[in-house]
What we know:
Layout: H1 15-24, H2 27-32, H3 43-56, E1 60-68, H4 91-107, E2 113-120, H5 127-143, E3 147-152, H6 161-169
Helix pairs in contact: 4-5
Amino acid sequence: CFASIDTGEDIFGDSFCYQKIVEFYPIERGVYLHFIVEEIVDETKEFLTAVRKTWDDNEDLKIVLLGTTGCNFGCSYCYENGVNRSLNLNYLVSEQLCEYLAKVLKTNDKIKRVFVLLFGGEPTLRWEQLMYACEKISDVCKNMKVSFETGITTNGYLLTEDRIRDLRKYNCTS
């Protein structure tokens, strides 16, 4: 639900939803909390400025690497239900990511650590591609004298001793 600051009307036409907002969160509170903004506010510019400041002031660069949207489980509570499950990381994207990472590290000498979260769906379904990406990212970090760590969000079903060794090679901390 989104209310127009000018008219106070629900801009998507859901009057029930709008009534609930007004009952529990008066417009003034929505404006105060920045859920509702005036038309003169350039939200994109403010967002990008905040992101840039975070990047400029931070020694860590965090990357979420989506190996696949596919999964080997069918959990009813999964927050990714309804997502296109056929998207997969490929080698070209890994190469492009590394090129971009090198440019970022060259232009921002405050970054001392790159942290990559291996994510999905179930990231272990695209293990070879993720390890390829980690190897390439690790090389970029070594060349730029920046530390490199990884983490993984997984159901763990496809983890093996060899894969755990792979994760340790890339300083998996979570």
